[in-house]
Amino acid sequence: MQLATRAVVTAVLAALVAVAGYVGGMPVTVASGILAVVLAAGWPTLAGLPFPPGSSAVIGLGGLGAVVAVHVTPDQPYLRYLPVVFASAIILAFVSELLRRDGRTRLVESVAGTVTGTLVAVAVAGWVAIGRTPGGEPLVVGGALALAVGSAVVALPLAPWLGAVVTAAVSAAAGAGAAAVLPDIDVVAGLLLGLAVGILVATLHVLFDRLPTLERRLPALAAITLPVTVTGILVYVVGRVLVG
């Protein structure tokens, strides 16, 4: 899948998250769960892990478990059960390795890659947490819009450093613009949130863009959803720091 296609699809997904955040409630949870499942399906092949079925199962269960845990937590802090979910997923990663019947080649790489993928999937629960936080809907919308714009800019044929600077700047402008028209968030907070999202998008682009596995469908889908999932926890943390 070409870079331009991946960038456009990522931007569309981020825009859908923004719409879900504006609506609030269950749509954000459902969108986050879908993102976790898609990431789980493609991450093992994207990372070149030796036991894709087991890794996908662990990552999917970890991501969905995190989304559900945050959704059903009755009051703040909404992420208080997230460490329990992640720790349980780590145990499942070792259980998955015990089920292998291929000689357990590249064992350390397999465990490390599965745990890393689970951490990325768990991060999507940040969208649910910030969406449930009082006054958090504007943060979801602003962060998702900054991600959508930054992801679209990544597709432009720019030199690596120039592309990173432009991506960060445009995302910051998108965050500030969203804050200017949304309630309960000031322009400076929106600017800083957009800047953080833009830096993340540019970094992920540099890390994953040249992987040969992106020519295949499932790894490409994982790369498409990766920025959206990771941005969830980023928006939550930055939002709590800037807005409270």
UniProtKB/TrEMBL annotation:
Organism domain of life: Bacteria
Protein name per its UniProtKB record: Permease
Listed transmembrane segments: 56-72, 78-99, 111-130, 136-156, 161-182, 188-208, 220-243
Organism: Cellulomonas rhizosphaerae
Keyword Cytoplasm found: no
Keywords, ordered alphabetically: Membrane, Transmembrane, Transmembrane helix
Sections of the chain in a coiled coil: none
